[in-house]
Amino acid sequence: MTKYVYSFGGGKAEGKAGMKGLLGGKGANLAEMANLGIPVPAGFTITTEVCTHFYKHGRKYPVQLEQQVKLSIAKVERIMGAKFGDPENPLLVSVRSGARSSMPGMMETVLNVGLTSKTIKGLIKKTKNERFVYDAYRRLIMMYSDVVMEKAAGIESKEGKGIRVQLEHEMQKIKNEKGYSQDTDLTADDLKELVEIFKSKVQEVLGVSFPDDPLKQLWGGIGAVFQSWNGKRAISYRRIENIPDEWGTAVNVQSMVFGNMGETSATGVAFTRNPATGENKFYGEWLVNAQGEDVVAGIRTPAPLNEATKNEQNKHMASLERAMSKTYKELDKIRINLEKHYRDMLDIEFTIQEGRLWMLQCRVGKRTGTAALNMAMDMLKQKMIVEKEAVMRLSPNQLDELLHPIVDPSAEARTVPIAKGLPAGPGGAYGQIVFTANDAVEWAKTGKKVLLVREETNPEDVEGMRAAQGILTGRGGMTSHAALVARGWGKCCIVGCSALNINVRNKILIVNGQEYREGDFLTLNGTKGYVYAGQLSMMSAAENPRFVQFMKLVDKHRTMKVRTNADTPEDARKALEFGAQGIGLFRTEHMFYGRNSEAPLFCLRKMIVSNTEEERRMALDELFPFVKRDIKATLEVMNGLPVTIRLLDPPLHEFVPQEPGKRVELASSLGISLDELEKRALALHETNPMMGHRGVRLGVTYPEITEMQARAILESTIELILEGKKIFPEIMVPVVSAVKELDHQKVLVEKVYKEVCAKYCVKSIKYMYGTMIEIPRAALTAGKIAETAEFFSYGTNDLTQMGFGFSRDDIGGFVPDYVEKKILPADPFNILDQEGIGELIDIGIKRGRKTRPNLKVGICGEHGGEPSSVDFCHRVGMDYVSCSPYRVPIARLAAAQANIRCQKIKKS
Ligand code: PEP
Ligand code: MG
Fold first, then answer.
1. pTM score
2. pLDDT digits (tens, 9 = 90+) for 389-434
3. Which of 207, 300, 740, 840 could serve as a FRET partner for 862 with CA atoms 20 to 30 Å apart?
4. 562 touches 895 (CB < 8 A)
5. Virtual CA dihedral for 171, 173, 175, 178, nearest 10 degrees?
6. What radius of gyration do the chain's Cα atoms show?
7. Does residue 584 line the site of ligand 1, with CB under 6 A?
8. Which residues are in the CB-under-5-Å shell of ion ligand 2?
């Protein structure tokens, strides 16, 4: 017979902590605590399988459930020495939900179940406290009628007309009549009168009477928990947190203990260490003479648990340590035992009933990135955990938190965002909004903090983007220009924020009817994609020497290397600081954007609009020193480490100047008319440039472009080597779909190679020749491509674009819908689609290595810094991942965790 109900209490339990899937987090941990001999009010857990059954069978329970519940109640009765529904000595229970992972506040709780007109008398006799009993009864009626009789029954009340609000109104009426300010002012007689009013109100509003049968109350509560699994709030929470619908919730029925039985009773919540800082101090809040809901609801201000954690706001309040020192000591002992047992920081709930301590809940506590780091390192030092566990204790996203200033979470909790977009660049930023890159630069010069707000950005905006604290765009996806650039710099950025209505001409931004003018303040949370009006406070990610220690540990446990995508010596230096082991992608074209780009950009433009090879070669000769200077500077910074330099990739027309002034200047320098220039520019126009004349195709039609770049790379290399440096260039050809393209370019590179060797009188220069794999055909024909390529670097931005057929710059319009409708689990430009694009990668590696067993393989698409994608890269056997400088530590951690996970799987 299937076991649907698991009991706990009296120093033992049928379940244990490892059974979260079946018993839910709360049930499994209650069982574990009971097994540890920690005082837990006896109870039982109805499994998540019942929830699944309930929804599979038209909301019906398995037939054996009733009998199993009956037997379990009898067990609880024996342990607690009271009987459910007994008029003399009644047992009361709470009914709570408990899913596998916690869903705070999403599902329902009913307390004091079992109080009826019959049992009230017995409880009064037992507690000798009439007021307390009637207060418990009015709470039961309020909670039960709201949760079970209204919500779970599917009754949609109008705003402000719900039964709970109406009952609260009745209570307020009595308080007003009697001139009371607090609920606690109500006397036993008042409460007696109130419960009668409540009952008739329930009858009047809901059309049924309040159940006076304890078992009916209990089954009502159980049903409400299962119903609430499919409530609107719970469903949307699951979407956000990626919790599968199939998990279901368990139900915990537990005997009631009361924190509101007078001055020797209390209730509280605590963390075994400080969840915000990680400090090893018992940290929490408590309330004397109160029930759990009073702490959570924030009706009364709770007091600090102990003297050591008092702060400015609560220093005048009595700590539990002082007020009930014996109980506090007992609680502190439990805290230490629990931490030892779970070997982690826990979040606990407790109740003190007339001096006796009861534990109601414990679970591994949520924490900030800083706290996670500090706790992992402390627990390692205390030998509570081993190195591998310490490495697993920080999620890569929490690490991200440590690298950037963030919006103060408490300020965020008090503020409603005005809009939501895609979280493209991490951290937080606030500033005065400006609408053009020029304004951003000018305002920043005067010392103002600005946010650049654009419909979308393009290479001409780069200076403004650099000057701004953060970037906000109305269009674009996670690999749009703004997102790529911002992430590269570790700059806060939100893209694809479709609620923005931007009027650049009048410098006005309208969001949901509200106007924001140039100079108004906005705040961005680039980690979540939230936009706020005004200036929210920031928290600086404090320099932490432990971060360095932790990262050392991380490196010890990873096998895959981590490189960076960097195009300037500054970025390269930054990435080295973050631990990069080489450059996996140097995008040559980036030297034509931003600071100091005027002169080389002008030469490039001349080359682009050249009409003959001769004209082009002349422009290339002018361009050559700039290209060489840039490549050489970065190669020098990376002394001793490999650098993959990609040949020019983007469609040329992207660089044709749009401003009339620039066009005139260019025409005159070429000695042609403006008309002629316009004609040439028009000829370069492409309908679909992403699949047009770009990448290797440029080198095929204009071999002189490839030659110039090969010369710049090889000359820089040999000059630095002759200075005594160790330089390892890797020449990478982009957008290749067939091996013949690669062969064609190789001839050009080898010709230049011979010339350079001769010029510098050397026999050889060490370099590698390889390709990006970013077109599905290249992945499929990787076996052939590897005959020429010595390395592969997966360009998963384009591979995703071409694998899905989704234009990477236009996904803002439909991918969010795909995710919302669960057609896609996530934006595939952000999180690698392992099933499809991953399969192409895997095939490519296997076929490539069949031809060339020592083929070096890496990834340089944006996924190279995304943790779940890094895990995939490790599993398919890549040698390295490459990502923007700020993501290097994240990728290092993700790579170490991937390795630890794989080792664990192999062992088991
Ligand atoms: C890619 O396509 O993944 C890539 C790294 O190149 P880019 O983003 O420059 O096209
Ligand atoms: Mg690409």
1. 0.79
2. 999 999 998 887 787 788 887 888 889 999 988 877 778 999 999 9
3. 740
4. yes
5. -140
6. 33
7. no
8. 774, 795, 798
